[in-house]
Amino acid sequence: MSQNLDDDGFVTRGPYRHRPDQIRVTHPLDPTLGHDCDRMQIDAYELEETVIRDVPEGPRKAIRVFITGRHFDSGAIPVMAFVGEQMVQFLRLDPTGRWLEGVLLEEPADRDPVDVVMGADHVRHPDPLDRSAIRRIDWQPDQG
User: Fold this and answer.
1) Between 138 and 46, whose confidence is greater?
2) What residue segments make up the domains of the chain, in order of their start?
3) pTM for this predicted structure
């Protein structure tokens, strides 16, 4: 393959210059191998109680959900997360696609699955929720 080298022996593409040995040539993967390097994956999740204050009915407990994994970067495709049938509200996505977080407004049931859905891709963590693993806080509604 012909490489247009500049006077110093570098390949120039726009503002970038690389030595020829720094350029990594990639090849398409055989789809029958089941390689999932570009598909979403849930690595872990954590749930903890929190207090949400800016709601019309006043401060209340909620469950913060934090999910780590890969490829949660959606572009224009909406990403949704669920614990059981309950959708995670106020969802925030990490710009690098490595985590997402939000809140559940109701207590989830024991053994509920943790799912993330983006378009046709739907992933589930292999371990269902163990409610005893939810980190609890000591807060009463009259504490504000």
Assistant:
1) 46
2) 41-143
3) 0.72
